[in-house]
Write a structure and sequence with these properties.
Layout (H helix, E strand, L loop, with lengths): L2 H8 L6 H4 L8 E8 L6 E8 L3 H14 L3 E4 L15 E4 L6 E5 L4 E5 L4 H8 L4 E2 L11 H7 L6 H4 L6 E7 L5 E4 L5 H7 L8 E8 L1 E2 L4 E9 L2 H11 L5 E6 L11 E8 L8 H4 L10 E2 L3 E2 H11 L2 H15 L3 E6 H5 L17 E9 L3 H14 L6 E7 L12 E9 L5 H17 L3 E2 L9 H8 L1 H14 L8 H7 L1
Parallel strand pairs: 2-4, 3-4
Antiparallel strand pairs: 1-2, 5-6, 6-10, 7-11, 8-9, 8-10, 12-14, 12-17, 13-14, 13-19, 15-16, 18-20, 18-21, 19-20
The structure holds flavin-adenine dinucleotide (FAD).
């Protein structure tokens, strides 16, 4: 029997929720709804409860216990995979906890509720000459989601993941304990709740240290790289001289050109370098550009993207992009433009059609990355299951429990999902996993949807998984917190 067939019976008691919990002071606003991942390739029906306060989270735990349902926290819900899906359970919509509680523009310390987005955050601090220390490629993510996944930015090799910039956070565990953690206080929980995918507790409040900037502009050096070997060696050699580095990789290129692309290496302007910082630091200056990949005008993009989102179309887009990338040049752009490329076209992921898209991101040590990625790029070309977009970054290891960090590189690949390719694509990504494991690589739990429990065990290791499970037993003895991802990887 499918989950959908079982639902009416399982959820029959739901309309009586308030009657079941007469002592509850708060009125939980819940409705049954179909939730999806960012790429619209995975769907899971769940009870969504809109959360405004920490007390409501506690009440939702009580409710879940009574109804024998599992609970998952959800921020914006734009992980590429099933991290914030919980088929048949309760999903806590944290976006209502969206207050910036304290901002000190002298010290750069900010305290926020967990549902505050990166967009809210940078717009608050940037006019005062600060920028979030680590951001994802979209500004739509919440801080709770960012800590749970322990996101990395294009500056991972310099400053580590976002967790390294957290001064303190408060979280509520299913036992009802409100814990405050910092690198010195409840240290074990600090290093495991950050990266812990919301499986040990729910973040309520987060204090972060912002990074000083002296201009609203960033200086970017763009240059082509003719093949994979140069791509990786340039990332490695250039990184120490810059604040940020990111590569675009033409996943369709073959032969001697395999792995060609373009590198964008960027640095913050020094004090005095921008003659008009008061102007460039204004929010109005941080507009997103009107062209995607330097090729397509944004205003008409949504009409035109869909027909291009197939193997032939994206081969053309990648080729055109490489031609525009051939010119080595330096330019300045706003912080928002540089960091949030993927927000240029709202809802761009919908252009992938009914089956949606998934992302496969692998993190591989610098010594083995070239051979491993050569193998997976060739495999995807042989199978005629090409990735439409390839993005590379430089990384370093970190101390968080479920870390994806390595002293090496990451390659993120976006795949279109269709009814026809779903099975062979899944099978191919399992083969990718074997290649990446053999190369000593790791995987990111906010991205990959095909990683198996066996793969997770192999790259995390027995000791790490045992430690995670022991902490889970302490914070969540009844296993109330579960997501589709948790069931896929840890059960
Ligand atoms: C276009 C795009 C670009 C991206 N670029 C990057 C990138 O450059 N670097 C990078 O690292 N990631 C990147 N990501 C991934 C993204 O940053 C993570 O998936 C992030 O977790 C999403 O935030 P969210 O608020 O949508 O969280 P959700 O998807 O809602 O949840 C993610 C995880 O966080 C947990 N969670 C959410 N809120 C809480 C809370 N309050 N307490 C405890 N747990 C919670 C959920 O249970 C789940 O496990 C990108 C995603 C997209 C769509």
């Amino acid at each position: 029997m499918t989950l959908a067939e079982r639902l009416p019976k399982i959820f029959h008691p739901w309309p009586a929720v308030s009657g079941l919990l007469p002592t509850m002071s708060l009125n939980l606003n819940a409705h049954f709804t179909q939730l999806e991942n960012f790429g619209h390739s995975l769907k899971a029906p769940a009870y969504r409860i809109s959360i405004k306060t920490t007390e409501e989270i506690y009440e939702a735990f009580q409710l879940a216990r009574k109804l024998e349902l599992k609970v998952t926290a959800r921020g914006t819900g734009i992980s590429y995979n099933d991290a914030s899906l919980n088929g048949g359970g309760i999903v806590l919509d944290m976006t209502g906890m969206d207050q910036i509680q304290e901002w000190d523009s002298a010290s750069g310390l900010v305290r926020c509720e967990a549902g505050v987005t990166l967009e809210q955050l940078w717009q608050k601090v940037e006019p005062d000459g600060w920028w979030p220390p680590v951001v994802s490629g979209t500004m739509k993510t919440t801080l709770g989601g960012c800590l749970a996944a322990n996101i990395h930015g294009k500056n991972n090799f310099q400053v580590g993941p976002i967790g390294e910039h957290v001064i303190e956070f408060t979280a509520i565990t299913p036992t009802g304990a409100l814990v405050t953690c910092s690198p010195k206080k409840n240290e074990d929980l600090f290093y495991s709740m950050i990266s812990g995918l919301g499986m040990l507790g729910v973040f309520t409040s987060i204090t972060l240290k912002m990074k000083r900037i002296h201009s609203g502009l960033i200086s970017v050096d763009a240059r082509p790289v003719p093949n994979l070997s140069r791509h990786l060696s340039d990332l490695c050699e250039d990184a120490p001289n810059y604040d940020y580095i990111v590569g675009w990789l033409d996943t369709f290129a073959r032969g001697k050109s395999l792995g060609r692309g373009q590198i964008h290496a960027a640095r913050n302007l020094k004090e005095g370098e921008d003659p008009h910082p008061q102007q460039t630091l204004q929010l109005a200056y941080q507009h997103l550009p009107d062209r995607l990949l330097g090729v397509m005008p944004k205003s008409v993009l949504h009409y035109f993207m869909n027909p291009f989102v197939n193997n032939l179309g994206w081969r053309g887009v990648n080729f055109a992009k490489y031609l525009t990338a051939l010119r080595k040049h330096t330019f300045k752009q706003s912080h928002a433009e540089f960091h949030f490329l993927l927000d240029y076209v709202p809802d761009w992921e919908r252009s992938f059609g009914r089956g949606g898209l998934i992302q496969y991101q692998s993190f591989v040590p610098k010594e083995t990355a070239e051979a491993a990625w050569r193998e997976i790029l060739l495999l995807s070309q042989r199978r005629k299951l090409p990735s439409y977009l390839g993005v590379t970054k430089r990384h370093r290891p970190d101390d968080f429990l479920l870390t994806h960090g390595v002293d090496g590189f990451s390659l993120a690949m976006d795949f279109k999902v269709t009814d026809r390719n779903r099975k062979p694509l899944s099978a191919m990504l399992q083969e990718f996993d074997k290649i990446i494991l053999a190369a000593g690589g790791r995987f990111y739990f906010a991205k990959n949807s095909e990683t198996s429990a066996e793969t997770a065990q192999r790259f995390l290791g027995y000791e790490t998984i045992t430690k995670f499970k022991r902490l889970k037993q302490r914070c969540d003895p009844d296993n109330l917190l579960e997501s589709d991802l948790y069931r896929r990887l840890f059960k």
